[in-house]
Amino acid sequence: MFSGARLAWILLLLCYYMVLVFVDFVPFVGGLAAPLLKPVFAVGFLAAAWTQERGGVPALRQLFQGFRSNVLALCSLGVLFAVGMMIAIGSTALIDDGKLFDLLTNPAPQELDQEAVARRLTETLSDTQVQLGMLAAAMCAIPTLLALWWAPALVVFQDANAVTALVASLRAALANWRPILRYVLSVFFFGGLVPILAGTLVTLVVPAPAGRALALGLMLPYELCFVATLHIADYVSYRDVFHAGETLAPIVHERAPGS
Predict the structure, then answer these.
(1) d(CA 23, CA 38)
(2) Are 127 and 96 in contact (CB under 8 A)?
(3) How far apart are CA 7 and CA 4, in angstroms?
(4) Shortest CA distance to 107 belongs to which of 98, 115, 118?
(5) Residue 141: how many CB atoms within 10 A of its CB?
(6) Alpha-carbon dihedral angle through residues 113, 116, 121, 125, given to the nearest 10 degrees
(7) What are the backbone dihedrals phi and psi of residue 69, each rounded to the nearest 5 degrees, phi first?
(8) What Å distances lie between residue 50 and 8, 225, 239, CA to CA?
(9) Could you give the CA distance from residue 212 to residue 232 in angstroms, rounded to a whole number?
(10) Among 9, 94, 173, 244, which is 20 to 30 Å from 53 by CA?
(11) Is-above-0.70 flag for pTM?
(12) Which residues lie closer than 8 Å to 56 by C-beta, 6 or more apart?
């Protein structure tokens, strides 16, 4: 699906990031609004994939489709996401005495220069307690992530309320844990290891700072394509799990979800 509409998907993704940046600059509420609106914008990507699957072309206007599709339930999912991630991150303090939390909330103290900031980051992430805390945070975040995996799709496509969508998503994820595990490992490989290895190789071959600039120039397009594919995968996996074998109706005979 991404190969069939590369430019449309990348433009959709760039527009999404621009909206997030704009929202983040809104005084007082910007930092809180971004996670709350995440499920709402997720519906936009689902609508774009729904349209493409039926022969259409993803359009920028579909990014805002979620604002016409049970916004209250979608925002409720956003609240759960924010609370779940806060609990997961907060759990690290029980293991590393708040080192990771301090790094996340204050990544670049003004009293430190660039080298000191980089050294602080390296020392913190190499700390055994911090690494154990990150593992604990990941374990705490898993139930929230699984419950939210298909919840936006269930809200917009099946008109489920927030609680029903969360329960159904969690049950489906647990029932399909083997393919989800393979998916997560694939995401880790292509989204984590490949960029790190490629970036390291480039910086070894090309001296800094040109090497860092070249690595960034190569990895940025790759990451955009990768993230766009992940958004498509959310829709495809939803179809595979909840509507396997269903015959598609032509787009001219149906209205886009939420419209």
Answers:
(1) 12
(2) yes
(3) 9
(4) 118
(5) 17
(6) -170
(7) -135, 80
(8) 14, 19, 10
(9) 30
(10) 173
(11) yes
(12) 251
